Amino acid sequence: MNILKTSLLAALIALTALATPLLTPALPSARALEIAGQTVPDTAEVAGKQLVLNGAGKRVKIVFDVYVAALYTTAKTADAAAVINAPAPRRVELRMLRNVGASTMLESFTEAMEANIGKDGMAKYAAQIAALTKIFDEAKSASKGDVIEIDFIPAQGTQLTIRGKTCPAIAGDDFASAMLSIWLGKSPAQDSLKTKLLGGS
Fold first, then answer.
1. 29-47 per-position pLDDT tens digit
2. Of 157, 200, 162, 163, nearest in space to 179 by CA
3. Which domains does the chain possess?
């Protein structure tokens, strides 16, 4: 009798173990971040290095939504200076929410850069800014739905990819830092966006 009870108990335990995965509801899978209708990937690859989404937010000019910006780093951090000066690949990705002329986009970049590095700094990077100007002139515009990837690659420079077309790298790690100051400097283009890019709320 004890043998029969033991056998029945063992069978019941085995059936329960088999049924548990079927009865347990599946946990929802992780979803990419969504901002202003834009899906922001949680990872990116730059120069063969896997990066993670550090933070993302919306760039607003006056009352207009301009783009969704995402910052990718090798490890999450809330330290702006650490990102700006990191000897590792980084990416700022812009997902356009409206049509913006190339000259307007360039002007917004250079104004924010000058606010952080001053007129002397802008003069120092005249050649790099000329290269950046050429890239935007050739792009002609940044249209709603366009994706602009700005990769900062140590010892190679700053490389833009606009609408899937990769542009020649702009040399200088120091210029890469100046570019990153647009969003992460002491006088960023938008304080609330800086906070978001650094993982804040």
1. 345 799 999 999 999 999 9
2. 157
3. 33-197 (3.50.70.10)
